[in-house]
Design a protein that fits this description.
The protein has helices at about 20-35, 35-50, 55-60, 65-85, 90-105. The protein is mainly alpha-helical. It has a domain at about 65-108. The longest helix has 20 residues, at about 65-85. The radius of gyration is 18 Å and the shape is extended.
């Protein structure tokens, strides 16, 4: 899922607090799905960092922003997705195009 450069030590902790009930529900749900907490959070973080559209759509729903900005964001995302589909491009091909542009024009 990731082409991430593997460097540094695996010593960083990402910690937050929640209540007992939600933590117990999370553990039960993760066991049902056969995932550990660390694997779950690593997958979610990877999807977010790699701008997986499934995660970005959810983030757009929950992040604080004005209705006007949310509508504009949705329109732009849908227009971009539609254009990529019209051109017959996969999500990976679109990412590759942006990578090429970034390499050729690092000041953008």
């Amino acid at each position: 899922m990731s082409n991430e450069i593997d460097y540094g030590k695996l010593t960083k902790k990402i910690v937050f607090t929640d209540n007992d009930h939600r933590q117990a529900k999370l553990i039960i749900k993760l066991r049902q799905d056969g995932l550990s907490q660390s694997a779950f959070f690593r997958h979610i973080i990877t999807a977010y960092l790699e701008e997986d559209n499934r995660i970005l759509s959810y983030i757009d729903e929950v992040k604080p922003q004005s209705k006007k900005h949310k509508i504009k964001t949705d329109k732009l995302r849908n227009a971009g997705t539609q254009r990529a589909q019209d051109l017959g491009l996969s999500d990976q091909q679109v990412v590759d195009i942006f990578d090429v542009i970034a390499k050729e024009h690092p000041d953008l």
